[in-house]
Structure formats: C-alpha cells, structure tokens
Amino acid sequence: MTMFDDEYNSGPVYLKHRNFDDGRQQPQQMSATKLADLAFNSKVNKGKDISKLEIQDDFGIPVNYVRIKALEDGIRMNIVSDKNSLHRAITPVLILAQMCALLPVQGIRGKNTSYLVFNWFSWPVIYVFIIIAASLLILSFSLIKIYMTGLTYYSTGEIMFFGSSLVIYILFIHLAREWPKVMKKWELTEREMRQFGYPSKTALKFKILTSIIMVLAIVEHSASVLTGIMKAIPCSTGGLDIFRAYFSMSFRQVFTLINYSLIIAIPLGFLNLMLACAWNYMDLFIIILACALSDKFKQLNQKLVSVKGKVLPSTYWRKSRETYNLLAALTQDLDEFLSPVILLSFANNLYFICLQLLNSLKPMHNVWEAVYFVFSFTYLVGRTCAVSLYAASINDQSKKPKSILFAVPTESYGVEVARFLTQVTSDELALTGCNFFSVTRTLMLTVAGTIVTYEIVLIQFNSVNGEGNGQNNTTNYCP
C-alpha cells in the first residue's frame, strides 16, 4: 500500500466519519451552531429536555427540528408586513374595536401576524367581561320589567337591543380566538399572490370607511340622547333635574326597581354608548373584511382583463386557476369565521327597520323628533345596504373571470381553461349567514320585498285600529 492509497480510496466517505476540527471549517460550523442556540435557548425552551427530539439524517448528523422551528420563528418575527397588507391596514380598525371592548386580541400593532395571540388573562379580555356582566345585568332588569308589566311589541325593542349587544360581545370573543389563524392564512395568500402586489391605498380606504360609519353612529346616538332629553323636560322641575328625568325615562327598567342615583346613571349612559358603538362596529367589521377580500379578487380580474383575447400557454391559465383556488379557499375560511356575525347583523338590522316603520305610525310631537326619525331611519337603511353591497361584491368579483375565459382563443383553449371555467361557473363563492342565506345582490331585493310587505300590513292594521294605536302611541308618562 502506498501513501496515496488513502487519498484515492474510492469507498464512500460519510460526514459522520469526517473530522471538522481543522481551522478551515470550524468557524462556519460554530457560527451556525451559535445562531441556532441563540434562537433556541429562549425563555420558553430553557430547562427542557429535547434530546428525544433529535434524530439523524442520512449522513448521521443530528437534526433537531425544534431548533429549526425556533430559527424559522425568529426569522419570521423580524419580517415587516407591507403597509397595505391586511394586518397593517386594519390595525386602526382593531384599535377602535378594543376601545369598544371588542376583539380582545394582542399583537395587533406587531410587524406581522406572528405577533397575534389571544390570552384569556389579558386586560382587553377583562375589559370585555366587565361590559358583558353589565349588559347581562341590565338585560335582567329588562326581563323583570316585562314580567311585571307584560310583553308588548314596543317593549321588545330594549330586549333586542341589550340581548343582541350581549351576543355581539360573546361572538367577538370567539372571533378574537380565531383571529390569529385567519390572519396567518390571509398573510399566506398575500405571499402566494406577491406577483400581484398589494391593493393600493387599502389602509386609507379602511380609515375612510371607519370614519364615515362611526361618525354617523355617534351623531345618531347623540341625536337620540337629545331627543330623550327633550321628552324628559315636561317631567322635570328644571335645571339639572332634567338629567334625572332623562335617565329615569331612558332606563325605566332599572329605576323602577331601584332608586335613582347619579352614580348609577352615569355608568348606564356610558354602557349605552358602548353598546351602540358595538352594534355599529359589527356592520363595519363585515364591510372592512368583505372589501379586503373583494380587492384580492379585483387584482386577479385586472390581470385577466389585460390578457383578454390573447394567445397564452396553458401554464399561464394553470397559474391563474391556482390563484383563483387560493382565493376560493380564503373565501370559505372567511365565511366560516364571519358567518355568525353576518346572521346576527342581518337579523338585527331587519328587526330594527321593522320597528322604525312601526314607530313611523306614531304622531310626531315636534319638528326635531321628526328630523331625528328621518335621519335615524335613513342611516339604518343606508348601513344595511352598505353591508349587503360590500358583502355581495365578493360574489360579483368571483364571477367576472367567466367573460374573460369565454373569450379565450381556440389556440389557447385547453384542459386548464376548461377546468378554470367550470370552477368559476359552478362555484358559488359568497359570504353566508351560517349557510341560511348567501349574501348576493338578489338578497337585497328579497329583504326589501319583506319590508314593503310588512309596512303594507302595518298601514292596513293602523287604519282599522287607528284610535287604539293613537292612544298607545301618544302615551308618554313620567317615571
């Protein structure tokens, strides 16, 4: 055997038999090890025995998947999402939600969705439970009052308001628990569609929508309070006693069972404001998420419109179909997440529209009361239409690729185009109310027909029993 036999030995040389102690490879190996240890030796993993998680690869080198996961998490935490990504654009909307004791999720100001987490023992959750307890208490007072005085159509209004508000807060706790998962799926879709970029001015659009809806909500609530104060003036002795009369009339279910106290009245007024904001925010939340998903479909549709009638290879149509599949899956995930809120929103809005129509048959005592009624009813109908149209825009945008696919030239038509066309025409992509109904443009006509039918019945009933209605409607006794 010569001295060169070992050098030119044709046998396999495994990495586990190699010596890495020479000075050329040691710095690189130590650098990687230190980097892994730095990410792995966090507060969460300190003191844990992870030797059982180590396995060996084909070359016999230990592989620790926990360390790899720690490295990936460390890298992901430092990624900064684009300002027009949903996570960054919706941050001001979520801050407003937490001011209203809704969606108590942590990490909404984080760089990306990796920071989102729900914690039962956080201050936002405690804040929500305080509001829930107060709502439950005042709902109990309302039920006791109905038990004592009897159930009427007008008395069900406060039951619906406080009861539905309680359900809203409970639903948004569930949404907060699911929010990190939904946002991670959305962020993954945004990365898969990175060649399309991000919808322009998304953050500005969200701020404008939020400002319009919430400002109108505050104006409507303020007008309601002012109307209540004007009704309370004849029941007061003047001065600050007006506020006593207002709170006693507005929260009659409370102050018929306990004595009036300003210490109780002020929190009740704050709670009433919070519940009004929560009721309006529910519709705003649906509009924002529907607008965001509709914009993702618009990006794909604009790309398809730019190639309408052109001869393109099947690979292009395959990639377009896969992108449509991503959006279809995201729509189904969003519908599963949002459908209970949509059902509650439509039930709420339809009920209060009917209640307002019933109130329209009551005689107005002054011009301000008539102005307030017109503004409140118009705002309620307008907000309901906005929710319907924005939610229906998802279904509208999902059907637009159909016209482009019908225009594909014969040279380009193939299996991928046929599969794409079949999916667009057969899939019914839309938000639903727990699968009881799909929110499309035709739903608006159905709801409008129901409301018109109800109004006709009310008018006929009022004309037959005009005298009885007049007596009931003009009753405004002081507490």
Descriptive key words:
479 residues, 67% helix, disordered N terminus, mainly alpha, two-stranded antiparallel sheet
Structure description:
Helices cover 67% and strands 1% of the residues. The model is unreliable at 1-33, 42-53 and 467-475 (pLDDT under 50). The chain is mostly helical.
Structural class: mainly alpha
Contiguous uncertain segments of 5+ residues: 1-33, 42-53, 467-475
Mean pLDDT: 81
Largest sheet, spatial ordering of strands: 1-2
Proportion of β residues? under 5%
Q: State the separation between the terminal residues, measured CA to CA.
A: 114 Å
Radius of gyration: 31 Å
The main β sheet shows up as: 2 strands, antiparallel
Beta-strand segment tally: 2
SSE order, as H and E?
A: HEEHHHHHHHHHHHHHHH
Report the helical percentage.
55-70%
Shape: elongated
Please report the number of helical segments.
16
Provide a quick synopsis of the model:
The chain has 479 residues and is an all-alpha fold.
Write the topology of this structure.
Blueprint: H1 26-40, E1 54-56, E2 62-64, H2 65-77, H3 86-89, H4 91-99, H5 123-149, H6 156-192, H7 202-232, H8 241-250, H9 252-255, H10 262-305, H11 314-359, H12 367-399, H13 401-406, H14 415-426, H15 441-464, H16 466-473
Antiparallel strand pairs: 1-2
Helix pairs in contact: 1-2, 5-6, 6-10, 6-11, 7-8, 7-10, 7-12, 10-11, 10-12, 11-12, 11-14, 11-15
